[in-house]
């Protein structure tokens, strides 16, 4: 049997190869990340060089709960389960989506291959973004399309139940079909419909303006993101203006820092109102990269939420050593040993929204006039878990278990 961790590693590698073909600048990003990792590997306290270099986090977007449920079933075959609930509508730069992240949940599985996919679903029931008429049209459009072949999802459920594929032949076929489901489509896009959705949000257009889904970014992990930023810029790659997340300090790295190269104009085929097709371009995909630090406890996260609004006084909120962090109960360490930090495996909504906005959204249209409590829709962690038919794991529970 080919175990789910092996399938996951093959899936991540296949997606990476495909994405590198679709977005050549991604290959440069991976090359530079690998160079930096070799030079900054140190004592391996943030994971082995092999693990860090192979690590990827993908991002995809779907339109409704049925599509999200298919994603959950598909990723379960790769040993990836939903962890955390993210509401990017509430970020300083709002994006009309709610999200979860599919990833391994056991420490040994993360070590074998830590592939994650941040998966966002369009919040069409939120009247602040979609009036009733537009919502109805978007919902109909999404219901008519089929992102994943039924036999692919059926095979995924069977493989998940069995704990892996029967043999190399089945594994290869399954990984190939799963990867193809996230390839960028070359089918013509209805220009008028896409532009109408883009008036709400470029992310909304990317989700519901097309009949397929695709990898939006495939993020390598780097051990020194500031050095990565400098080297990419030196190569003439246009980066976004800032590194999102905590500031660089002399103390322990915490949570997650992210940046990216700017979304590139990619050639796409369009169809006008008269039915005539023509060539154009869209700028929706970008090259994100991340650096990961120690996972914070709930107390540490409270400190972080306060400190991030006052970064100049970071040291007033966080001590300068891992030993002090551990003693204060601010972060997770294996067995309480400050030399063994538990790596943060999840995401920061504000950083994700900041990356989105820096790349694709100038302004998101929000209807300020809508104020009643039902206008924002039913979305919550419990709602999403019920909608996709899978338990959504609490990241703090997973970090506590990893530290025990």
Description:
This protein has a single domain (2-293, 345-396), classed as 2,3-Dihydroxybiphenyl 1,2-Dioxygenase, domain 1 (Roll). The protein contains 17 helices and twelve strands. The protein has helices spanning 4-22, 24-40, 49-54, 65-76, 107-112, 132-144, 150-162, 168-180, 191-198, 202-208, 225-234, 298-307, 314-317, 322-327, 349-359, 381-388, 395-403, and strands at 2-3, 56-62, 81-87, 97-103, 116-122, 164-165, 189-190, 217-220, 256-261, 266-271, 277-282, 287-292. It is globular and about 65 Å long.
Mind telling me the CATH superfamily name? Uncharacterised protein PF07063, DUF1338
Helix and strand succession?
EHHHEHEEHEHHEHEHHEHEEEEHHHHHH
Number of strands: 12
Structural class: alpha+beta
Gyration radius, rounded:
21 Å
Beta-strand share of residues: 15-25%
Number of domains: 1
Tell me which CATH architecture applies here: Roll
Placed side by side, the strands forming the largest sheet appear as 3-4-5-2-8
CATH topology-level name: 2,3-Dihydroxybiphenyl 1,2-Dioxygenase, domain 1
Shape: globular
Largest sheet: 5 strands, mixed
Mean pLDDT: 91
How far the N terminus sits from the C terminus, by CA atoms, comes to 31 Å
List the total number of helices. 17
Helix content: 40-55%
Which stretches of 5+ consecutive residues score pLDDT under 50?
A: 368-373
Enzyme class: oxidoreductase
InterPro entries: HGLS, YdcJ_bac-like
Organism: Mycolicibacterium fluoranthenivorans
Pfam families: HGLS
